DNA sequence: ACCTACCTACCGATCGTTCGGTAACATCCC
DNA sequence: GGGATGTTACCGAACGATCGGTAGGTAGGT
């Protein structure tokens, strides 16, 4: 076993595209079947190569999951957290966080919260890394709700419970409303934004 | 292979208790690790018998999952749907459905919605049976919201989307707030009821 | 000559499940 | 009372299949 295999130093454009396909297909299969329910044989068949061929693109199954979750968090940070952190009005910030989060789900097929429980298959240090990144996102939700409370706009509620409820409604979109199943993405985003903001705001 | 093995005709009280322990422990492990991530060896070790010993209590791993989901639906129907179906006021009906649902989660440790995705490991006819039972529950949610709409009390929203959001907030309780983790069960139930009803009602 | 992107063949380990068995207990008959 | 018979609740060993992964290799491109 190569203790510290290096990624390929000079991937070709085709190789890079194949690498991305491997990870995208892996994420998609693991959302449907779970991490342990998806074999490397399944993945190899889905991308049209052998199991051995996969190991040219990945270090291990577990490392692949870790990279998928890291990538998903990268997307969340770049496409949800960073664009909204600077919004001064906490209500607008929350609306935009939820709207952008739903869009990320559709754009990348990254059902992060559906893969999130699969974090249990990682080694503890990797689990901790992912947990901290997820918690930073939740922290922004909680901070925004605290600001709303300070403005007298928040209903009487437990902010931690509300934060988890908000994340669950978003997670549920990937499960209950897969792409192309009748409800438009924009409608779904707005329904989710309105559902959650009506739940937490006094005058709404 | 015995094509139609019969359950034991005359289990002893101790045997019956062991049988129930096998199923309870299996449900608990599968919530934590997933169906495919939980081996029969894991389960045997957890209940203190060999793998072969398990097969005295169960027909197969897959059949065991099916029975666990059936049992969970039985509990849902007896402890949530039946007690609330007869409530005339749709708002009170919804409040009680959500409250009782949360209580069932704590009482039975039945994180139904956390095990629900594991339905994919069943054979299609069994999947269909479970799906129909779950959909009946959702149907009561949708019916209640339609009645609220007829009374002019429902916000402008997509009832299907709202129904899935409501179920997701309940599902999230088992994930984010396991028993004994700081938030009291009664508080959690009321927070969840209020979150959801605030989300869907006009004047709240 | 060297590198990338694969492949075949194979490895040790684990999987779900069964086979053939045992210990303990209950029942029946002599 | 004791032996024979049957049942329940398990067990050790083993099975065929699949698992994640590697060794050694090849074709094609630079």
Report what the structure shows.
- Chain A has 204 residues and is mainly alpha-helical.
- Chain A folds into two domains: 1-59, Arc Repressor Mutant, subunit A; 60-200, Orthogonal Bundle (Tetracycline Repressor, domain 2), CATH 1.10.357.10.
- Chain A is built from nine helices and no strands.
- The first copy, chain A, has helices spanning 13-33, 40-47, 51-54, 61-85, 90-108, 112-115, 124-150, 159-176, 185-200.
- The A-B interface holds A 32-37, 117-118, 120-121, 155, 157-158, 160-162, 164-165, 167-169, 171-173, 175-177, 183, 187-188, 191-192, 194-196, 198-200 and B 32-37, 117-118, 120-121, 155, 157-158, 160-162, 164-165, 167-169, 171-173, 175-177, 183, 187-188, 191-192, 194-196, 198-200.
- Chain A binds a DNA duplex (30 and 30 nucleotides) through residues 1-2, 8-12, 14-15, 18, 39-41, 49-57, 60-61.
Question: Topology, pairings included?
Answer:
Two copies of one chain form a homodimer.
Chain A: H1 13-33, H2 40-47, H3 51-54, H4 61-85, H5 90-108, H6 112-115, H7 124-150, H8 159-176, H9 185-200
Helix pairs in contact in A: 1-2, 4-5, 4-7, 5-7, 5-8, 5-9, 7-8, 8-9
Chain A binds a DNA duplex (30 and 30 nucleotides) through helix 1 and helix 3.
Could you give a short description of this structure?
The structure is a homodimer of 204-residue chains. Chain A has helices spanning 13-33, 40-47, 51-54, 61-85, 90-108, 112-115, 124-150, 159-176, 185-200. Chain A has 204 residues and is mainly α.
């Amino acid at each position: 076993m190569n203790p510290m295999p290096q990624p390929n130093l000079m991937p070709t454009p085709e190789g890079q595209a194949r690498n991305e396909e491997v990870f995208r297909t892996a994420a998609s299969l693991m959302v449907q079947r779970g991490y342990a329910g998806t074999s490397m044989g399944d993945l190899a068949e889905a991308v049209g190569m052998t199991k051995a061929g996969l190991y040219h693109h990945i270090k291990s199954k577990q490392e692949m999951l870790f990279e998928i979750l890291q990538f998903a968090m990268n997307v969340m940070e770049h496409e949800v957290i960073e664009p909204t952190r600077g919004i001064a009005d906490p209500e607008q910030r929350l609306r935009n966080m939820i709207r952008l989060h739903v869009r990320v789900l559709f754009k990348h097929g990254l059902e992060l919260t559906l893969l999130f429980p699969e974090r249990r298959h990682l080694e503890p240090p990797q689990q901790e890394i992912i947990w901290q990144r997820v918690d930073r996102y939740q922290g922004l939700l909680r901070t925004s709700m605290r600001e709303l409370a300070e403005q007298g706009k928040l209903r009487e509620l437990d902010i931690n419970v509300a934060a988890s409820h908000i994340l669950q409604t978003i997670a549920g979109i990937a499960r209950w409303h897969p792409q192309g199943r009748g409800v438009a993405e924009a409608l779904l985003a707005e329904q989710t934004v309105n559902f959650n903001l009506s739940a937490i705001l006094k005058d709404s």
